[in-house]
Q: What sequence folds into this?
């Protein structure tokens, strides 16, 4: 099988642990991917909300060094760099050059709280993009970097949509209809991303799968997929596991669980749709994004 994962936090863990991409204790370890014919992974540099200013930029630079040291790119494995929380820009538009120079492919604008760009999903006083945030969205798209609206407040989501000239993505967000958390997407938001040619990655975090996270399982992942597919998402739906960044259900213990999940999807939705969800849709998005800009 071929597997394209839009989001993991393995790079952040490796950076703070002074480790690498071969670690049996992590959800993702390169040696656990031998079962895949192709594996493409976006490795996110997570910037915690409490880390601001030059400290946030420093963490980004440190993680880039770890990524380069562990980088693998061959016929089977493709590693891509992403940022989760654009506070690493330190409020300075010139720092987008750091993203461009290091071939960052996507940027999540906020994490859960507020930063210089706007408000994340868990802000008490929810608002949308700031003036700086609008400049950042335009510059990211101008520089061929995908804008990721996972973690966005609803107001920020619609502000981004209103100024975007290219399709946005939600790298790791599920359905709010199935699991009622502000971190998941409404049906309207999913349809907007669908209609503009973006993609949405299913998140494996138990708290986004089931309103009672103790009961979360692969069955819930299928429920979210079924709902999005019924909204016309066959060419939109992808995978954004959140491995090494979130607590998983008991039956999802790491990337070596993915073949079993793939089989469940094949049984439920058929091989053609499953192949799109697990590889083709994400691969096509980034291929087209390179061509468009």
A:
């Amino acid at each position: 099988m071929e597997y394209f994962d839009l989001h993991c936090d393995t790079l952040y863990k490796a950076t703070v642990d002074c480790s690498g991409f071969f670690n049996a204790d992590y959800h993702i370890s390169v040696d656990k991917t031998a079962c895949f014919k192709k594996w493409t992974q976006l490795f996110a540099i997570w910037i915690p909300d409490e880390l601001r200013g030059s400290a946030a930029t420093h963490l980004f630079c440190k993680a880039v060094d770890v990524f380069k040291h562990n980088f693998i790119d061959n016929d089977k494995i493709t590693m891509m760099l992403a940022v989760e929380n654009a506070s690493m820009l330190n409020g300075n538009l010139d720092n987008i050059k750091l993203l461009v120079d290091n071939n960052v492919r996507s940027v999540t604008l906020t994490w859960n709280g507020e930063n210089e760009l706007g408000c994340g999903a868990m802000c008490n006083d929810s608002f949308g993009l700031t003036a700086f945030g609008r400049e950042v969205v335009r510059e990211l798209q101008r520089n061929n970097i995908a804008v990721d609206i996972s973690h966005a407040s609803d107001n920020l989501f619609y502000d981004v949509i209103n100024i975007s000239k290219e399709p946005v993505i939600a790298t790791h967000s599920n359905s709010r209809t199935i699991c009622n958390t502000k971190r998941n997407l409404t049906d309207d938001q999913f349809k907007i991303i669908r209609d503009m040619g973006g993609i949405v990655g299913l998140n494996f975090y138990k708290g986004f799968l089931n309103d009672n996270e103790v009961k979360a399982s692969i069955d819930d992942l299928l429920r979210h997929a079924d709902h999005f597919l019924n909204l016309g998402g066959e060419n939109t739906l992808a995978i954004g596991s959140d491995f090494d960044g979130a607590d998983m259900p008991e039956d999802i213990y790491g990337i070596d669980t993915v073949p079993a999940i793939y089989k469940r999807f094949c049984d439920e939705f058929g091989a053609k749709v499953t192949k799109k969800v697990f590889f083709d849709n994400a691969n096509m998005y980034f291929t087209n994004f390179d061509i468009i800009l």
